[in-house]
Amino acid sequence: MEAILAFFRDILKEPAFLMGLIACVGLLALKTPWHKVVTGTMGPILGYLMLAAGAGVIVSNLDPLSQLIEHGFNITGVVPNNEAVTSVAQKILGVETMSILVVGLLLNLAFARFTRFKYIFLTGHHSFFMACLLSAVLGAVGFKGAVLILLGGFLLGAWSSISPAIGQKYTLKVTDGDEIAMGHFGSLGYYLSAWVGSKVGKGSQDTEELEISEKWSFLRNTTISTGLIMVIFYLIATLASVLRDPALANKLAAGQNPFIFAIKSGLTFAVGVAIVYAGVRMILADLIPAFQGIADKLIPNAIPAVDCAVFFPYAPTAVILGFASSFVGGLIGMFILGAVGGVLIIPGMVPHFFCGATAGIYGNSTGGRRGAIVGAFVNGLFLAFLPAMLLPVLGKLGFSNTTFGDFDFGVLGILLGRLGTSIGQVGIYIVLAVMALVLIMPSFMSKSSQAINNVTEEN
Length: 459
Known about the structure:
By secondary structure, the protein is mainly α.
């Protein structure tokens, strides 16, 4: 029985299979010919595997950059990492996490069918991370067994439905009306960036409309411009590390000249980004048409909520601006924490790339270049402050010196942890009641069957 549960857990937390399964169900609902069902199912699976492969290249090249920065600039602290804290928690809460994941995904589908929150959350690994956080926090408050699983599953399913809806008006601006939603638990940071962009970006030119003279026109090629920028990042970090002590740079280079290694790593990073873009195009080409079958036959007006990297091709220049601005915000946040005696949160290159880039895209959608820069910068500040505030909560659970890196994990973890500490289990039930009201009320306020907030500002 445990092996069977583990099998289904692995399927449900793997976004490639989840997207393929959803696409298959949609195509079958549309009574599509079998050969098109096969190709339409394989497309999203292969596209996401391509996206994951590109993300793997990005992550593997960001890790040495983080080490070079920490060593070269003599920084010591905590680097937020979702995978690290999850791996620690799994040793203690494996069964609870798996059970919350399954219940949460099923409830997300139920909420999409019976409420106006029609968003189906397809980023399985983020659902898994959130299930881990919820099992840890609820367990610390004193919940056990079936009650812990049901409450955690409800919270996961509810937030998976509600979080895409909160900023869907911004997502529609990003995608120029393509009906997909944000299915990533950095969402509150992206919506905040879009709001900031709307306040500071009046009259600012869109990042994708930058006027570049003929001799610099090659920078419009996203792969080339990304490669050049990342090479500069790597060279600066390598130089600082070598000047302090060349041992680490030589170790990372594995017998190669450290500066040649830096150039190659920066260019390889750009290749990873190009692979991500290709995977995204493959996902969208098959998933959205297939999803129409879900919307028409099984869950009327359903909208897929997808990974943040899916939005990168909509504003490639904003991706780079957002990453850089978020990283600067993270650095300044780290210095502020150090000045006030807090734990140093070293900017993690992975969350600042993926979350910062997406914040830049959302900031650009409402405020152009200025919105992308300022919005992503604010996001970067929060990526320093929220993990620092979450760290004491996780420390009490036995996960000291590691913390989640993305925005939503910080907000929910801090909220549930602090309420549980101050007023006990009652605080958790209050949060559940509020989420239940949020899910139910729109159905009483309007007879519309459309997904809530899925309208453009012009409409």
